[in-house]
Please model this.
Amino acid sequence: MSSPAEVREAEPEAIATWDDRTVRVPGGNVQQSHAWGVHRAGLGWRAHYLLLDDGAAVLALGRPWPFLGGGRLYVAKGPVTAGAPPRAVADRLSAVAGWAGDAGYDAILADAEIPVATGYAAELRARGFHPVEEVGPSRHRVGVPIPPGADEDALLARIAKTTRQRFLAAERRGMRIVRHDGGAADPAVHGLETPAPAPVGASAPAAFERFYALLSATGERRGFTIGPRAAAVAWWRAALEAGHLVLLEARSADDAYLGAAIFYRNGERLTYANSGDVVALRHAQPGAVHLLLWRALQLAAREGRSELDLGGVDVAGARFEPRPGDAMYGLLEFKRSFGGRWIELSGAHERALHPARARAGETLARLGGGARRLAGSRSPRP
Model:
């Protein structure tokens, strides 16, 4: 593999097949997609679609400092590995850093979701990067491995008995899962209904409006925000149309709305992003979230993916695997009950390109409340 000595902005014909290099590859991520770049550009970011000499592609998002000029370049969840070893990925990021400095940026920040056990963080430090607080969750994930060719019995055998009983009981009561999915190569997956009577394109807007209201209520209870409705729904629709997003809705036998969850196709993973359930119906209709995750696991296996990524369990100020008695230990145990395993990631890293102006710009960004809102506090966010 050649060293990516040259970085250039992509021509339109390369952007047309962008996602084949950044999303539909091992280690791919929707925050490196064309749809994500277009969405962020609509919110005031500068989207740079960069091609490297070794054939890699990197989406980089630029944000100017307030009043100062210059700015920071953010490589969200990238560069993706696309099967390359950690050293090659670090070389790619270093090459992008060189391009960024020439383009007038003062700092570059990246948070590729690469396990720390690979040595990627050490490779970055050797190239002048240093660890920083994350922009979006990037310190760990809980992944459910899916063996090649695993059938339903093999998947069930890896799930804790009590968890299995909850979603099987929900099935027996007639609970159903409705699938909104613009990228469904095979819509006939056991237990997943397609919207009726409208096709996905017509049914999705109303489904996203329901989900936004549900997620807003969940955020009020749990203390997080999801941003403006219009931006959230616009991103979900764009991701659905690009084939990156799956929205699953749980409904009772009499069609009551019980909850929903969004998943993203990130390369070989199906990633659990956001979910919520109707609290008032939990007692009468238990197991909605359990059944949503079981159907997602079935879907991931049917699509030949090697992992159902259940996301993280971290809270502010705590970036370690929770222990009994910790606030997030119950959530960790819930995800482990599906066969999940803790995967520590390399985390976010930054390199100053023009140090004096980078320090001044960072100070201005903090004063303006922008330092922790580079790209939102969830992943991915509108």
The first strand starts at residue 7 and ends at 9. The radius of gyration is 21 Å. The domain at 142-343 is CATH 3.40.630.30 (Aminopeptidase).
